[in-house]
Amino acid sequence: MSGVDVLVEQYRKLSAERRREIAARASPALRTRLAAVERELALRHSPGALAAVLTDGKEMQAPHLDLIDQVFQRIAAGESIRLLLTMPPRHGKSRRAARWAPLWYLAQRPDHRVMIASYSSDLADDHGRWIRDAITEWGEQFGLNLHPGSKAANRFDILSKEGGLFAAGVGGGLTGKGANLAVVDDPIKDDADAQSPTMRRRLWEWWQAVLLTRVEPGGSVIVIQTRWHEDDLAGRILAGETASDWTIIDLPAIADSEDDPLGRKIGEPLWPARYGRKALAAIRRAVGERVWWSLFQQKPRPVEGGVWQRAWIDKHRLTPVEFAAVELARVVVAVDPSGGDSTVNDETGIVGLGADYDEHLYVLADKSGTLGANDWGLTACRLALSLRADAIVVEANYGGNMAKSVVSQAWEQLARDGETRGELMPMIVEVNAKVGKRLRAEPVAQLYDQGRVHHVGHFTELEGQMVTWVAGMNSPDRMDAAVHGLTELAGSGQTDALGQGMDDGRLRGRR
Fold first, then answer.
1. CA–CA gap between residue 82 and residue 237 (Å, rounded)
2. Which residue intervals make up region (Disordered) (predicted)?
């Protein structure tokens, strides 16, 4: 091996910054060798880099597509991953996750088998055909060739390797070899299928009995879809017993959370170079609110619309600066422990709320989460301390005296640790709901309609639960906690807004 060959081999192992320094000082002949190495390294680096090289930079690139690349890089490196990625239509998800990324993965793991499934066999075959044709055109550049006896669009094998690809539509059979990597892209065709309980049930049965049974031990599964319905495949995964096993990447068209996966500020578009604020606003007007919130914001709403209207929340929202001028008469922390009659009851709702002297109400904080009894007690008490709450309202229908005990014990623990700083424990108000969920929620929703409730900042999860809940659905814990707290705070002047049977003694102010 010549000295130049040794240099080139060492060059491959250096950092990108160091390689740039060497290339800048290299002779023209050596620079040509190094350029070939850089091309080879790029082809191996990531799906996006592979696409950029093979298309001379014409393939779409964006930060949200980089997230897809990163997951495939981890899987190729040997991790076993369950990924649920939800994002809006026309943002490049299928092209990256069901075409370029599987192509790149096969180049890294030619002995592995990849499965691609979509809502129809035609779409799945299209993905398979694209990958097959890409190997035919470019495969020699990254070491892949098709087996001459296995070149079908929906099933092909890699020459001299154990790997290959097979594709099928949702509901179809996946007989044959198992998959090291399964990619489910757009499992729902359209709104008609999404709204059909029968179609949703068939999809779930196929998912459980067919797709998951074909994944090899240690294999990975990627589900990438646009949300259509609260009970779609993504919704069932999120509500299922194995939800904690999944990595969740939720990418709405407009950022609506402070913990956005891309670090976007609230209100920033997902792909501003392609769909800016004005373009997305035009799309929202064209498709309507229900489609916008499901397909574009990944927060599906029931067809009938929620008891709350989002406009009631948005119109009367306050910034922290605006709220600074408000003098509160009362502050409570409301808790709805996980449990009860909900089928998705793994969260404890913990919401901080206040009331001013003019009978306006304020949502101040949402610390809800999946918490054990001791943890939710500590969280509620710490929130009460930070807000200087005068009461902790606890829903006690399913816990009896346990809920009150949890709060008392948590406060005692904080007192022993010195966190209470000598503050007296707030009054504990136990709520025993005597009427149905709709009769509890509707009077509070009326206060929103009247402009008497103000959210101080954005509470994405809580607000999403409010605007998507309709009678007959299981009421989520964040929303229940807010309803209990706002009902407690409502002054006697507002009791006329309540339905018959709602005045159970919790509406008497204690100024």
1. 11
2. 492-511
Phi, psi (rounded to 5 degrees) for 351: -130, 135
- Alpha-carbon Rg for the chain in angstroms: 28
Is residue 349 within 8 A of residue 431, CB to CB? The reply is no
Phi–psi pair at 424, nearest 5 degrees? -75, 150
Dist. CA 35–CA 29, nearest whole Å: 10
In this structure, what token pair is assigned to residue 492?
């006697």
Name the more confident of 290 and 496.
Answer: 290
* CA 343/CA 324 separation, integer angstroms: 39
pLDDT confidence band for 384 (50 / 70 / 90):
very high
| DSSP E strand stretches across 413-496 | 427-431, 453-455
Cβ-proximal residues to 204 (8 Å cutoff; 6+ apart), any chain? 233, 236
Calpha distance 320→454 (Å, rounded): 11
Residue 305's alpha-carbon distances to 24, 285, 455, 473, in angstroms, are 61, 17, 20, 12
Which two three-digit tokens encode residue 394?
């606890």
| Residue 422: CB atoms within 10 Å | 6
Mean pLDDT score, 258-285: 93
User: Nearest Cα to 424, choosing from 437, 411, 436?
Assistant: 411
Q: Measure the CA–CA gap between 1 and 8, rounded to whole angstroms.
A: 11
CA max distance for the chain: 92
